[in-house]
Amino acid sequence: MKRTTPDTAPAARRRHALTRSTPPDHRARRARPLSTLPLVAFLAACTGEPAWLGLDEPLRVPGGTFKEGALPGTPPVPSGEAQLSPRVTVIESVNNVVRPGQEGKTLHGRTTTDAVAVALRFADLGTGYWVVPVGGPDPQANGELTWTVHLDIAHDAAPGLHPLRVAALDDAGRAGTQAEITTCVTAPIPDNLSTCDPTLAPPRAVLSLAWSNAADLDLVLVTPSGKIASPKQPTTAPAGQTGTTPSLDEAGVFDRDANAGCLAASPTRENIVWQAPPEHGPYLVYVNLHDACGEQAVTFEVSLHLPTPREDGGETLTEALRVPGQVLALHANGGTQLGFYVTAFSFQ
């Protein structure tokens, strides 16, 4: 991924023509031994800091100790320049992309042998850093000490590129040169990572349903051709002429079935994503309560997002429509109905 900063210039008017209409009446129904870790033991047992400290941070590390303030150590330096110890020698991850609400993103690496812990934070977000102990030596890396953290990303973490910095700490709490990995926090609405790389084109349209509790709520869309798309029928493409899988090149496709079977998802959001211009004509939007999952009611929002030009010549997704609503537990139907009519719009 290119190390670029997303363009935040105001977007021009969207290119798609959008109209709203009323629903047809017939459809509408509204390790190392602990003795070698004095610093970590001290932080965990003797600080007296509240257990909730750090819960409002954009980055959280379960099992770690949160400390207010700047990350210890000196800023990262270019490769090849002299670095101070203790220091992080390696940072590794499957990829550098995280999404708001994601839990358990693994980051691991190694430190010099004089470290007892690592500290980490986003350089440009939050108010403090997290401390976790290092593990045992890696015999294939001259005895450098290993470390692993599992990151939880806040639901409201700011989308875009953010430098994640990691410092190694010795038993006196001293840190050397910090290490850094650039991390992409994705936008809540799927945008093909254009938030982190403006050279990437966003989808042609995204219809989104968001809610905030454990209920199994489903987004349902009736297309101009009469196709009913839902998480159980996750594409707007008509059936193939011979019963085979239809082409999805120009279809809208669901990205997930959130809270299916009352298994909590994070985030509780479902999206229909069109990578090509959608079929022209009117669309009817419904929200169906498949299962209340113990909830008494569900408050939701349906929104439509379309690409609009950036001043630099690229595009960004812009909200074109937002409709709130609520459905009660007594309307749960196991997916046997369309659900409650929410709104209508047209692509022209």
What does this structure look like?
Residues 233-246 have a biased composition (Low complexity). Residues 1-32, 227-246 are annotated as: Disordered. The chain is an all-beta fold and 348 residues long. It folds into two domains: 34-185, Immunoglobulin-like; 189-347, no CATH class. Helix content is 3%, strand content 38%. It has one helix at residues 38-46, and strands at residues 18-19, 59-60, 65-68, 88-92, 97-98, 105-111, 117-122, 128-133, 145-153, 160-169, 179-185, 205-211, 216-222, 228-229, 252-254, 269-274, 281-291, 297-309, 315-328, 340-347. The strands form four sheets. Strands 3-8-7-10-11-5 form a six-stranded mixed beta sheet, covered by helices on one side. Strands 1-20-17-13-14 form a five-stranded antiparallel beta sheet, with no helix packed on it. The longest helix is centred in the first third of the chain and has 9 residues, at 38-46. It starts with 17 loop residues before the first strand and ends with a strand. Mean pLDDT is 87; it is low at 1-47.
